[in-house]
Design brief:
Length: 241
């Protein structure tokens, strides 16, 4: 559920070439910007209709996206028709007082089946759903990443990343290196992380190649973040439990 979702439906409508772009792909609300505008541009040759819904967004170690329908985010209009070659706007605002910790939401734009179609047989029709992140919070708040190696032995390295701050941790690369006793790199791997919301944590596992184990002495993990300093941690590595 990270971006556009394509739903395949068998319907009596001939398949169309619906091409709708949205911008921006992320909305931020705050005291200095209480409203935001989402634009839908239709570059196809048919009118495309969308229903708009708002959800509160939470996550846990197993699932990046838990959605609960909410009225804390308001938007207009709730139904959007985008004619060929046209641009339509959806205005979005927060209906709840802003707190010290940033709140996360998702705006769902759900494409509806075509209103009408020429005579013809059954066809596969592609419907698109866009899930747009919406963040509401005060200016100046920051994430606070806490990175740790939980376990490093055999062919397995387990990591944990916690966000102890008041703002989301944005997408980041995380590099894992296995070193020998002299400090030479035996193996390296990169993890492409995703958002970690305030007060939440995520676990990651890296599988090492079998030939890296006998000489492995230490594991070093370095993570880069947006709006937060990089973190680097290391741990002794055991070849066998």
């Amino acid at each position: 559920m990270r971006g556009a979702i394509l739903l395949l439906l068998v319907s009596p409508f001939p398949a169309d070439a619906s091409r709708v772009e949205i911008s921006p792909t992320l909305l931020e609300l705050g005291p200095e910007r209480p409203t935001a505008v989402l634009q839908l541009r239709n570059s196809s040759d048919v009118t495309v209709d969308f229903e708009v819904l708002a959800f509160a967004w939470d996550q846990d170690e197993e699932n990046d996206v838990h959605l609960t329908e909410t009225r804390e985010i308001v938007f207009f209009p709730a139904m959007v028709s985008v004619e060929p070659g046209k641009v339509r706007k959806v205005r979005v605002a927060a209906q709840t007082p802003l707190e010290k910790t940033e709140k996360a939401y998702r705006l769902l734009l759900k494409q509806l089946p075509p209103r009408s179609a020429p005579e013809g047989g059954t066809a596969v029709h592609i419907l698109t759903e866009f899930l747009v992140p919406v963040f509401a919070g005060h200016a100046g708040i920051r994430p606070a990443p806490e990175l740790a190696v939980v376990r490093s032995e055999g062919q397995r390295v387990e990591l944990k990343l916690r966000n102890a701050g008041q703002r989301r941790l944005q997408p980041f690369p995380m590099e894992v290196r296995v070193l020998d006793e002299a400090g030479a790199t035996l193996h390296s791997a990169e993890i492409h992380g995703w958002y970690v919301l305030p007060g939440r944590e995520k676990s990651y596992t890296v599988q090492l190649p079998e030939n890296a184990c006998p000489a492995a002495h230490r594991v070093v993990v370095r993570a880069e973040f947006v709006d937060a300093p990089a973190r680097e941690v290391s741990s002794a590595h055991r070849c066998s439990p």
